[in-house]
Amino acid sequence: MAETPKPPAQATIEWPPAGRRRLIGQRISRLDGPAKASGRAKYSYDVNRPGMLHAKLVFSTQARARITAIDTSAAEKMPGVRAIHLILQPGAEVRWVGQEILALAADTEEQARDAARAVKISYEPLPHLVADVPPEQAGTERVQQLREQTEGDPDAGLQQADVIFEGEYGCAVITHCCLEAHGQVAEWNEDNLTVWASTQNVSGLAPQFAQGLQAAGIPVQASQVRVLTPVMGGGFGSKFAADTWGVACAALARKAGRPVKLMLERDHELLAAGSRPSMYARVRVGAKRDGTLTVWHSESWGTGGPSAAGTPNLPYVIGAGRNPVLPKRSRHTAVFTDIGPARAWRAPNHPQMCLITMCALDDLAAKLQMDPLDFFLKNLQYTERPEVYREELLKAADLIGWREKWRPREEALRAKGPVKRGLGLSLHTWGGRGHNSTCQVTIHPDGSVEVAIGSQDLGTGTRTVIGIVAAETLGLPLEAVTVKIGSNEYPPSGASGGSTTVGGVSSSTRDAATNALNQLLAKVAPALGVPAEQLEAREGRIQVKDDPSRNLSWKQACARLGTTPITASGQTQASLISSGVGGVQMAEVAVDVETGIVRVEKMVAVQDCGLIIDLKTAESQCYGAMIMGICYALYEEKIMDQLTGHCLNPDMEFYKLAGIGDIGELVVHMMTGPRYEERGVIGLGEPPVISPGAAISNAVANAIGVRVPYLPLTPDRVLAALEAKGGAV
Amino acid sequence: MQAFEYAEPKTLKEALGLLSSRWGETEILAGGTDLLSLMKNYVATPRRVVNLKSIAELRGVAETSEGLRIGALTTVQELLEDRRLARFPALTAAAQGITSPQIRNMGTIGGDLCQRPRCWYFRNGFGLLARDAQGRALVPEGDNRYHAILGNDGPAYFVSASSFGPPLIALGARVRIAGPNGTREMPLSEFFVIPKNEGEREIALHPNEILTDVFLPAAASELRNATYEVRQREFLDWPLATASVALELREGTVRRASIVLGHVAPIPWQAGAAAALLDGKALTEDLADQAGEQAVAAAKPLSKNRYKVQLARVAVKRALLAAAQGGA
Fold first, then answer.
1. Which residue of A123, A173, A293, A725 has the smallest Cβ count within 10 Å?
2. Domain endpoint, select from A263, A296, A312
3. What's the confidence (pLDDT) of residue B326?
4. Are residues A584 and A653 in the same domain?
């Protein structure tokens, strides 16, 4: 996913060395925190334009059917209705409940809702499959074997094993649950379109809108589309596209001649705005008596809805290293279902692969009667970064008290009372190389500084990181820099996916700010009587490196620009970024074996991500990821009903997320200092969300002496696992 | 939501005059924590909404010669803050189980007793008895993980959503209902009914009646009572099973025990045989466990909710032990 940035034209650009950083690596509160906490920040949802209409979607009530007729005559006569836009035509096939068929706009949101209900769609039903079943139950026309991967000699590996464990593992289809739903406000000014979109892709959306509108018979060029996303409420991989509702919103605005707001309702958000594929696997894994792995076999499957959702690489982390190679054979089959499309969900495929691998290895360790900490330490040679994982495992163990608290499964179960405690761990990895980003820094004669990038802040701290890098580079306080993002009128920057943003924007900002500063230094060098190379910007001054007493204040220096500001651009710099991180998480859980209810008491995340720009927002990423992980480990499932083809829980009532009381104590430790920082900046969005499911599942297995094979770890599943084992009490 | 006429009567009499004699035509608004979502989802489409919140006589908790009279508009938060209710931890524990300050502040005791079931087929438009267009019952073959394990002979398979029904029935509460021809009273246990036909409701209220008061008998000094809720989350979550118990503990032995299960049947489920088991005995852990076993002896789990039998059994045991340990 990460393109190679252009090589630098001149001297290799660098980060300031450890002792010279004033802001980079500090714990700095996010710049837009007060505006968000006080409600002053305006999200797409909050945008209200003069004369604005409200649009609602009419979506399929059938899991699979052919549309035979669309009758809008009643809706057209409803009060307040101004425009109707067909997304599908009669004759089209719908493939999930919630698939968009048409959109209409009315004066008020309630009028639009009522009118949407008055549209009559006739269907010819077709057989559907929404149940999450293994390939052999899905029918041959609904399965596709993707790839068999073999390395080494897996048959010999089985022979060499002293102990073999066989198990089945998996996790349900879940959704993204962005706090801010998908959607936008669209407004035309003659032939120019402005879209306030909740998007992860400010710079990439205009061509999509142009293409979609052209297909709908509305001629508009990408250059005529302005996309604005000053703040947004989460995307997690589900908000890269203009989407049918985006194009429909703009088309309705065109037809009605008025601005239109179309934000998805929560039910539609859960039905149609993307989900994370399920994944299940039957695993055979073997090891020597001393714990050394000899082989991995897995047969996996899962559904991402109407199309295949990518091939997993199993096993995960352990067995990904090349020296030595762990003999393995893995095969994956995609099952096509009518549950709605999958979208990238924070670290696509990784949480599922992690769960399957780490749980199978944990079970093998239990069969070997080994402490999983020792077992994983024993097999780090099969990873790509043995030393990093070793250091992180030991650090995490220290933070959770593993050596003091850990008990073998059977012993944990003998604890008095119905509540049993257990510990579990998991390892993960991610790439995270910065994407292509361009940045423009402007230094004005009055000393003010603007940094402009066509990027977006998903809530991760991107805006703050850009400000820190610019301020650090220019020797200014953070408040002296104005960060401008969230518009495609700024220099283009990549979409925020795959943990690529921080590497892109931090290095392009460093580059642009350095270029701007060099221009300023050249301008003021004569006044200070030294060549520009002997000047530096520090603490609000331009000073001579060897004699800081010879200096100009920042304001004095900028005043020498006369009336012309300095502008300089920069790009992603390969020398400032890197790729590939490791992380370890450990969980401590309490399981009530009489009710099957699991509580996460404590979680520890130890994570590296190269050079950290803002320690506080980096830690926040990990906290948020652990919370998201607790949600999918214990609660989340998109529950589909095979009888009706409907999703039964498109709401926040039975699609369950954790509340504050369900989260427990969270501890984050970022790996910093030598050996980490010199790698440069690496992305962090995905990695910490990968391990929680596996770590929590392993902790539950440790607590109750038996594996609960599938996530979420609900009471019915916990009690069933205990019963299959012969009971706990 | 469908457009509707909004009425805000100041007196009970005025309110009664605004109600239709047919279900669905008018709806009563109290806290609104249920009705608003029903209307937004078009599950309820009344032509008139009658807001009771301006009717002063429906408010407040008062002591009477026989116990406490709790006005139907009393909020969950007011129940929690009323020191006269401290003798009824079965009730206050159920109130604490509603872990949302917003709902505690808006939701009322009357609304809790009259709220509609949370069955996801019902809420997704398949009707209270959850049938598809061909008349096929969806719950037995569908996803019934949260449905009834008792009183589920059909056609109703949903569970009563009331938090206060089980503790109030266990405590012997009665309710008063006002209608066009005056008022009537009944034990709360008779207020909940299992509907037999689509279009019927799960409470004994007629469409043109209003639940006005709950009467809670005075607590004997020997009264012990408790509620135990099995909920997956601390965060606002419907219980998977609950048990409310009330009993008198005289010289170490149990008298007049009452056990009522919640979220396991279309009505709060009275476990009479389990309660009878306790009579005259010392309340030990073993006995509590036996009572739990007895309480679910008649359970007939559906395809995906067998686990709820265990949860209900544990809830009974834990509620009894909590009551014995001083819940009074």
1. A725
2. A263
3. 72
4. yes
What CATH number does domain B5-52 carry, 2.60.40.1120, 3.40.50.2000, 3.30.43.10, 3.10.310.30? 3.30.43.10
Q: Name the residue among A113, A114, A597 with its Cβ closest to that of B232.
A: A597
Judge whether A597 is closer than 8 Å to chain B, CB to CB. Answer: yes
- Does residue A11 lie within any of the structural domains? no
Select from A110, A656, A720 the Cβ nearest to the Cβ of B233.
A656
- Residues 304-323, chain A, touching B (beta carbon < 8 A): none
pTM of the model: 0.97
Residue with tokens 């689509």: B198
* pLDDT tens-digit readout, A336-388: 999 999 999 999 999 999 999 999 999 999 999 999 999 999 999 999 999 99
Same domain, A189 and A233: yes
B137 Cβ under 8 Å from any chain A Cβ: no
Mean pLDDT throughout A132-136?
96
Tell me which residue in A113, A641, A715 faces B311 most closely, judged by beta carbons.
Answer: A715
Task: Read off the pLDDT of residues A654-666 as tens digits, 9 standing for 90 and up.
Answer: 999 999 999 999 9
Please report, for residues A4, A288, A662, A710, the alpha-carbon distance to residue A424 in angstroms, rounded to integers and kept in the order given. Answer: 38, 22, 18, 16
Q: Are residues A372 and A489 in the same domain?
A: no
Query: Does A526 lie in the same domain as A494?
Result: yes
Task: Please say whether the beta carbons of A617 and B215 come within 8 A.
Answer: no
Question: Given an 8 Å threshold on Cβ–Cβ distance, is A658 in contact with B233?
Answer: yes
Compute the distance between CA of residue A350 and CA of residue A359 in angstroms, rounded to an integer. 14
Of A114, A634, A715, the CB nearest to B307: A715
Take residue A386 and report the two structure tokens written for it.
């043995």
Strands B67-71 and B210-217 turn out to be: antiparallel
Tokens describing residue B264: 């396991």
Across the interface, do B145 and A659 touch by the CB < 8 Å criterion? no
B286 touching A (Cβ < 8 Å): no
pLDDT tens-digit map of B259-299:
999 999 999 999 999 999 999 999 999 999 999 999 999 99
Assign residue A124 a region: left if phi > 0, alpha if psi is -120 to 50, beta otherwise? beta
Assign domain B59-114+159-324 one CATH number from 3.30.70.420, 3.30.465.10, 3.40.190.80, 3.40.50.300: 3.30.465.10
Residue A308 pLDDT grade (very low, low, confident, very high; cuts 50, 70, 90): confident
Per-residue pLDDT tens over the stretch A192-229: 999 999 999 999 999 999 999 999 999 999 999 999 99
Residues A566 and A585 in one domain: no
